[in-house]
Amino acid sequence: VQDGFVKNVPLDEVKNALQAAYLPTDKLPIPYNQLIVNTGRRVVLIDTGTGGQLAPTAGMLIENMEPAGIDPKAVDTILISHFHGDHINGLLTADGKPAFPNAEVMVPAAEWAFWMDEGEASRAPEGLKQNFANARKIFGAIAKDVKRYEPEEELVPGITSVAAYGHTPGHMAFRVSSGADQMLTLSDTANHPAL
User: Fold this and answer.
1) How many whole angstroms separate alpha carbon 55 and alpha carbon 105?
2) Burial level of 92, CB count in 10 A (0-12/13-18/19+)?
3) How far apart are CA 8 and CA 94, in angstroms?
4) Global pTM value
5) Which of 194, 123, 110 is nearest to 153 (CA)?
């Protein structure tokens, strides 16, 4: 872990938090796993990961689905929380084909409006321009079929979008319900429980 990696606290506080959680203080692995919800009628994937495009240790979703007995063709709904590459790049295979060919893709309306806006792209700081280009690359061929959703919308029976703005302009979380039981699934709202 290097100084400046965590922006809102000094390095010593980060290392103390890691040590208190019995974790190494010289590195900070940030695991991110996608969630697949089988509602009994729908197979829903929440975010798609990197698709192997961002780091050699990431992008194993398709390979990990096989031992779990889930065929990518069985996924019929994909819910995207926000448009960063580690959440959308897995929509496509390495050769640019849909990784989940039978899935309806649903994205936050505010996220779509921001990342697809030419004016926003032209005003973006240099470090963000690649995010705009990546969103256009990933959604380019399927743009006409992508469904946009709003907060507090039931996207499929039992899964409702929840506004989680801040990380990105249209960032969403999802409330998953079954009878009286509920679970809130978050993406990038917090990156590591120890910090």
Assistant:
1) 24
2) buried
3) 36
4) 0.88
5) 110
Per-residue pLDDT tens, the chain, 195 aa: give them: 666 667 788 888 888 988 998 888 888 777 778 999 999 999 999 999 998 877 777 788 999 999 999 999 999 999 999 999 999 999 999 888 999 999 999 999 999 999 999 999 999 999 899 999 999 999 998 999 999 999 999 999 999 999 999 999 999 999 999 999 999 999 887 766 665
Residues β-bridged to residue 37: 44
Residue 105 tokens, joined: 């893709």
Report the Cα–Cα distance between both ends of the chain, in Å, rounded. Answer: 13
> Residue 193 is encoded by which pair of tokens?
């429980």
